[in-house]
Amino acid sequence: MEESKLSIALDINSTCAKVAFVIISKSMNSPTPQFVPSRLSIYEPIHQIGIWGENFKRNGNPNTSTSLIVEVDNKLENESETTSHEMLAPTNNYEQEASKPIDKIQRRLAQNREAARKSRLRKKAYVQQLENSRLKLIQLEQELQRVTQQGLYMGGVSEGSHIGFSGTVTSGIAAFEMEYGRWVDVQHRQICELRTALNAHISDIELRILVKSGMGHYFELFRMKSTVAKADVFYVISGVWKTSAERFFSWIGGFRPSELLKLDPLTEQQILEVCNLKQSCQQAEDALSQGMEKLQETVSSTVAGGPVAEDSYIPQVATAMEKLEALVSFVNQADHLRQETLQQMSRILTTRQAARGLLALGEYFHRLRALSTLWATRPPEPSLP
Amino acid sequence: MQEAIPYKSYMAATAGGRSRLHNFLEGAGNGGEHRLVANGCENSVTKLVVENAVIVFGRRGCCMCHVVNRLLLGLGVNPVVCEVNEEKEEAVLHELSVINGGGVQFPAVFVGGKLFGGLDRVMSTHITGELVPILKEAGALWL
Hints:
Order of helices and strands of chain A: HHHHHHHHHHHHHH
Subcellular location (chain A): Nucleus
Protein name (chain A): DOG1 domain-containing protein
Pfam family, one (chain A): DOG1
Structural class of chain B: alpha/beta
CATH topology of one domain in chain B: Glutaredoxin
Number of helices of chain A: 14
CATH class of one domain in chain B: Alpha Beta
Strand order of the largest sheet of chain B: 1-3-2-4-5
Keywords (chain A): Activator, Coiled coil, DNA-binding, Nucleus, Transcription, Transcription regulation
Distance between the termini of chain B: 8 Å
Helix content of chain A: over 70%
Shape of chain B: globular
Radius of gyration of chain B: 14 Å
Number of strands of chain B: 5
GO molecular function (chain A): DNA-binding transcription factor activity; transcription cis-regulatory region binding
Helix content of chain B: 40-55%
Oligomer: heterodimer
C-alpha cells in the first residue's frame, strides 16, 4: 500500500503532493459521487501491487497485465474527463468563483493520475530490463559451469582465455572443449579395450579393428583441432585445452610426432625402417619449427616497424594480423605430420605391435594427465617463518 | 657426381645455369637458396621449370615456402626458389597451371619439370620415404 502512494508522491510537485495525498486518501476511505465504486477497487494500491506481483511471479505475461493497467488508466482518464466536464458544465458566471477551487482540485487529480501512469510505465520498463538481465545471467552461469567442469576434469585452466572474444569464437572454443572432454573419455575406454584384448590374445583380425579405430580416433582429434583453429588459432597453439604436463611437451599445438616412435621389440628390418622414419620425422619437425621461427620474426618486425609515435601503429598491426593467418596452416601441417607418422608406423609394424604401440601411447598421455592432476593438488609450500 | 662446367654455360647465365654453377661451387646441402623475383616475362617461368630439377614457387615472405625449402635443404637438395611478388602472382600461377594442365597453389614444388605438389605432398612423401628416390631420379640429389 505504501509503495504506490510513495511513488505517486515523489513524482509530482511537492506543493501538490500533500493535496493529492489527502485527496487520494479521502477518496479511498469515502467513495464520493465522482468515483464509481468499481473504479475505486481497481485504483486501490494493494490490488495494483497484486497485479505487479502476479506479473513477476508468472514471469510470462507482462503484456496482459500491461493492457490491464493501461485499460485502467484510460478508464480513469476518461472518467476524470467526464466528471470534470460534468463539474464544469453547470458553471455559470456567478458560479465561476465557486467552481474554481473544485477546478484546481480536478486539475491536480488529473496531473496526479498522469504522473502515476508515467511512474507505472517506468517501473514496467525497469522490471522488463531486470528480467532480461536475469535470463542472460542464468545463461552465462550455465556456460561458465560447463566450461569450469571441463577445466576441472582436465586439471587445467581454460576459462581465462575467453574474456573479450566474440560470441562465435567463444562458442567454437566451448564446443571444442566439450568434444575434447568426450574424446578423452573415449580414448581411455579404447586403451582399456586394447589392454584387455592384448592380454586375451585375440585374433589379429579383431586386433586390426581395434588398431584402426584407435588411429581413427587420433585423426578425429586432428579434425576437431582444425575446426577450432579457424576460430582461434592461438587457443590451439597455447595448449590451454590440455593438462599442464602435456602442455610442457607441446609442439605446435600437440605432441611431437617423434614421440610416437618409442617402441620395442622390433625385427632388424623394422629397426631400420623405424630409424628412417625417426630421421624423416625429425627433419620434418625441424623444417616446421624453422618456419615457425621465421613467422615469429616476420610478425615481430612487422609489429615493431613504422614510427614510434602514438596511434600510428594501426597499419603495422593490420599487416601483422594477415601474417598471423599463416599460423593456422602451421597447426594443420603439424597435425598432418602427426597423422602421416601414425600411418607410416602402422605400415611398418605388425598388427600386434601396432596395438601395443597405441596402448603405450595412450597410456603415456594418460599418465601425463594424472601427473597434471597430482601437480595441481600438491600440498602448498610451507611459508617461510 | 659434380661435373666441370664449360666456360660457355657459365657465361650464359640463365637461372638454371646459375643454380647448377652454385651447386658445383658450394656443394649440395650447403649454401643459400637462390631467390628469383618473377618478372613480367612469362617465358622465364616455363624456362625455370624446365631447366631445374627442383624449383619451388611461393609468395614473397611466405613461411610455408620457407618450411619447404628448409626440408629440401636438410635432405641435401639445393632448390631454386622463386619468390613471386603480389602483382605477378596471378600471372605466374596461371602459367604454372598451363604447364601442369590443372590448378596450382602456392607454395608449389616442381620436380623434373612437373608439378610435384605442395607442402602436404612433400611432407607425406618424405615420411613414407618416397621423396628421396623421386628427387634422386630427377637429378636433384647426387648422393
